[in-house]
Amino acid sequence: MCSVMAVELEFSVNETAKIVKRLINEPSLSHLDFLKTMDLENINIKTELDSRDNERINFLFRNIGMSDCATTLSLLNAFKENMELSRKKYEEYYKSHARLYVMFGIFGGLAVTLVLI
After folding, report:
1. What distance in Å separates the CA atoms of residue 77 and residue 28, rounded to the nearest whole number?
2. Model pTM above 0.85
3. Is the alpha carbon torsion for 26, 31, 36, 39 positive or negative?
């Protein structure tokens, strides 16, 4: 998403509406449902991410196209770096919890086996 926005911004600082329309029409971003339902007058995006990440997404879309091209691109790069850190945090969380769920499954299966024997 950030790459598409950066390309759009490199030519000129566009209105947020034009940038969002470009994002909606991008086939590789079709899984981002919040783009299709976003109200440009009252941006309040809710995703499956935690509240801090949702605030970052809202901040990005509220401020995109509001200043000069260089400032907007630096905002976009900062957002991208923050989201990369969040992605790593989510990956670590799910890896650690996946092991826990597998262990619960194994021990639960053993417990059921012992009860049925």
Report:
1. 20
2. no
3. negative
